[in-house]
Design a protein that fits this description.
Strand order of the largest sheet: 19-20-21-22-23-24-25
Number of domains: 1
Oligomer: single chain
Distance between the termini: 37 Å
Number of strands: 29
CATH class: Mainly Beta
Strand content: 35-45%
CATH architecture: 7 Propeller
């Protein structure tokens, strides 16, 4: 599909008035600019509403090939558990029913963004300037995999085989991608590549990384990086307006955005076997993610003349290029269920509180508070940022039917560090349960950061306790 037209799909809900939209945009923009995590200095996220355009429906997309299974978990280790950062800044794991709660770190500094290994044997987390391998056990000592006095780590992503951990760290000249063997020590990690910003996805055999560095155009790169040699291949395309590339579950398709000779950005689903491409012109930036169970690419993109990716959610068939609308509303982020049946979409909700306006007046103070975590009490942060309410929507990928699951007030970390880069975090950190029957979210409840499970069957949310940054195990 090589049309130069933007999407023309029939609107499914009424427009918001332009005056109301302008107020909403200004308030959210102040919040995001004021609170955005300074540790990821090369990227900016703007949560904006787009001006809705008239659109027409297209043919539904049948399911295609099935996904390759994840590595088999070690039966000696617990599965179906949630890792999170407790109110004291330490990593805990817990069963979804609230039982068997374990604190698996015990350090004098707080931790960030725990992520399960593909076999669920380990949890990796950032503590201070060090990356630790933690075991889901009360009697196994933490193992440092990376440490630096000046090159602070801020993002982790396991290889599919669980043998390596890729670590993104700040460097004086940009961002560095480091590789750490899971059984190694802090002196065994090595620098693979530099770039700013830096996004990537692993190939299924864990031998290569599809990386996107820089923003777009001639100064950016989209190439395969060989893990063993550390050598990058030639540019696969001239990168367009997107963040994280994605490789389909069966390894056949790549998804990214590229610029054409006129400087226009196109969403691309490229067949690695045949070289065939499905291309769709998009406005704004595009954020994309493959279904884990079919060759279907979900994506959102901003409005014409904008650089954000918040917008309607659509689904493209990789083989035919046929695209259909799943949600007309402005989607800020979305996440596939492990079985590929559903997408969980996060949207804005109604009017924001007046306190949000204050965010733009206290930017330096708030950024300092976010990055200086040694003095932050993670469980009591309701007074640290204005209230914003989001919606969690469940969408059936086959039928397009949607259902509102809950409205929630996100934690500061969720709104400023996770959502702006959800397309990258969706590759490494799971918010869905292994059985695809629930999601876990960090929310503000009664002035406290709280871990809450949201069943998709309409059941009541289940509170697990105080904490932030919860992520589910793979199995």
């Amino acid at each position: 599909m090589d049309s130069y037209d933007f999407y023309q799909l029939e609107p499914e809900e009424p427009r918001r008035s332009r005056a109301k939209t302008a107020v909403y945009l200004g308030i959210v923009l102040l919040l995001i600019i004021g609170l955005l995590w300074s540790g990821i200095s090369g990227a900016v996220w703007l949560v904006d509403q787009m001006n809705t355009e008239a659109e027409t429906a297209v043919t539904a997309i049948p399911p295609l090939s099935t996904a390759a299974p994840l590595p088999t978990p070690n039966p000696a280790h617990a599965v179906n558990r949630i890792a999170f950062v407790n109110a004291g800044g330490q990593v805990e794991t817990i069963a979804p029913d609230g039982s068997d709660r374990r604190q698996i770190s015990d350090e004098s500094f707080p931790f960030q963004f725990p992520t399960w290994s593909p076999t669920d044997e380990y949890v990796a987390a950032i503590g201070g300037r060090t990356v630790y391998r933690l075991a889901d056990s009360l009697d196994v000592e933490a193992r440092p995999l990376y440490a630096s006095r000046s090159q602070n780590p801020f993002y982790l992503y396991w290889s599919p085989n669980g043998r390596f951990l890729t670590i993104l760290a700040n460097h004086p000249s940009g961002m560095g991608l480091h590789l750490a063997p899971v059984d190694g020590g802090e002196d065994d990690s090595r620098l693979l590549e530099m770039g700013s910003p830096f996004y990537w996805d692993w190939t299924a055999d864990s031998s290569q990384i599809l990386m996107h560095t820089g923003f777009s155009g001639d100064e950016a790169r989209l190439a395969l990086l060989d893990v063993e040699s550390g050598r990058g291949g030639p540019n696969a395309a001239l990168p367009g307006l997107f963040q994280a590339p994605d490789i389909s579950a069966n390894g056949r398709y790549w998804a990214y955005a590229e610029l054409d000779d006129n400087g226009l950005s196109w969403l691309v689903a490229a067949d690695a076997d045949t070289g065939a491409m499905q291309r769709q012109r998009h406005a704004g930036q595009v954020a994309l993610s493959w279904s884990p169970a079919a060759d279907q690419l979900a994506f959102i993109s901003g409005g014409e003349g904008r650089l954000d990716f918040a917008g309607p959610l659509r689904l493209m068939d990789a083989a035919t290029g046929e695209t259909r609308l799943l949600s007309q509303g402005t989607v800020l982020a979305f996440f596939w269920s492990p079985d590929g049946r559903y997408l969980a979409a996060i949207t804005g909700k109604g009017e924001l509180g007046n306190d949000v306006i204050a965010a733009g007046n206290t930017r330096d103070e708030r950024q300092s508070e976010v990055t200086s975590r040694s003095s932050r009490h993670l469980g009591k942060s309701a007074r640290q940022h204005p209230t914003i309410t989001l919606n969690l929507i469940l969408i059936d990928a086959a039928s397009g039917e949607s259902r509102h699951l809950t409205a929630f007030e996100p934690t500061l970390t969720f709104i400023t560090q996770f959502l702006p880069f959800f397309d990258q975090y969706a590759l490494s950190h799971r918010v869905w349960s292994p059985a695809s029957d629930a999601l876990v979210l960090p929310v503000q409840r009664d002035g406290e950061n709280t871990i809450v499970i949201i069943p998709i069957d309409g059941g009541s949310p289940r509170v697990l306790g105080a904490g932030d940054m919860p992520f589910w195990s793979q199995h």
